[in-house]
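<discrete_fold_record>
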Amino acid sequence: MPPLAHLGRRLVARIIDGLLIGIPVALIMAVVLGGYDPVDDTGASTVVTVVGALAYFFYEGLMLTRSGQTVGKQVMKIRVAMLHDGSVPAGQPGWMRAAVYSLPEVVPCCGFVFWLVNVLWCTWDRPYRQCVHDKVAATVVVSAVR
């Protein structure tokens, strides 16, 4: 098994993926909705949040089950691997990991709190530095450099 990925690389990979999905979704939704104000409580911001979470879920699920890497992970030279053998999380593990990461955000109020605890979990988890979504899928994030 390759060495575990550095937390900084994981963060930068998530930022890259977030921008890669978030910017197009925001632009498309602004056109579809005729613009929106995230502070205004008309429901448009909820629609944008749900569409964004679903887009990220499908993006991550497809990428992880195919190669274990999203575009951000490719740029940062890291990958998601099954804990028991280092293989690509094809099928259910990849989709479960993607779901636990992206979909709780759509739950009003507590969804963001769960998401925050989820992503911070790897800062104190030992020995594998797994986030909650990694634990659910039995995955780890490792270096992709061979």
